[in-house]
Amino acid sequence: MSEYRPIPLQFERQEQDLMRLRADELLQQLGSRRSVRSFSSDPVAEELIDRAIEIASTAPSGAHRQPWHFVVVDDPQLKKQIRDAAEKEEQRSYESRMPEEWLDALRPLGTDAVKPFLIDAPYLVILFAETHQVAADGTRSRNYYVSESVGIAAGMFIAALHLVGLATLTHTPSPMGFLRAILQRPANERPYLIFPIGYPAADCQVPDLQRKALEQVRSRNLEGRSEES
Ligand code: IYR
To answer: Where are the domains of the chain?
Structure first.
């Protein structure tokens, strides 16, 4: 495999004050993001979805394989097929597959097996992870750190959508194999997440949850070290 040609990094140092201001602004903007489960069917410009996918696709990836594929779905029939299949799986999960501990953990969120957002949202974006690559001559090569890479791309996608002014949800019906069948994707693609995307419904409500404070999610050096390791 040929090597990438080294080129000078484009990087500009910013004034400290500006860096602090940007960090504060970003925290405020991204901190107002909420997972939305109730969508308006108002149309959304598809180019905004495309820009968000391009932003997500700037994510770092193992060996720069970029092992992701985004399918943008707005066809009402496909959306209905996806909703029907997802609800069938979710019904079984809520009724018999999820252990009591998991159901207890979800109770505060009030979720159930009914997923109208899968047809109400003007777009569904289905993110697939490419487990390996298949060249034009049929030779396979493996990808590296696939779930880390695709997870990072997913996070960047969520941030991009929010900063652009759109609402989304990371939806994970389980199992998700039906997505590969309905969307007729190749065997090297594994469904990773569904993102319904649009504007929130006018009467959209979200759970009044709190986020962990900085002190709860970070420590410095050996602060709070564990005896066990
Ligand atoms: N996939 C199911 C259950 C679910 C699981 C988790 I973890 C959540 O944070 C929310 C829901 C559903 O979408 O209802």
So the answer is: 54-201
- Three-state SS at 108: helix
Quote the ligand 1 centre to 25 CA distance (angstroms). 30
How many other β-carbons are positioned within 10 Å of the β-carbon of residue 139?
8
Select from 34, 100, 158, 172 the residue to mutate for testing ligand 1; criterion: most ligand atoms less than 8 Å from CB: 172
What is the chain's pLDDT, residue by residue, as a tens digit (229 residues)?
689 999 999 999 999 999 999 999 999 999 999 999 999 999 999 999 999 999 999 999 999 999 999 999 999 999 999 999 999 999 999 999 999 999 999 999 999 999 999 999 999 999 999 999 999 999 999 999 999 999 999 999 999 999 999 999 999 999 999 999 999 999 999 999 999 999 999 999 999 999 999 999 999 999 999 988 7
CATH homologous superfamily for the domain 54-201: NADH Oxidase (3.40.109.10)
Find the Cα–Cα–Cα–Cα dihedral 57, 193, 41, 28, rounded to 10°.
-60
Tell me, what amino acid is at 170?
T
Taking phi first (over 0 means left), then psi (-120 to 50 degrees means alpha), and beta for anything else, what does residue 52 get? alpha
Pocket of ligand 1 (CB under 6 A): 90, 106, 109, 111, 171-174
CA-nearest of 171, 35, 168 to 90 is: 171
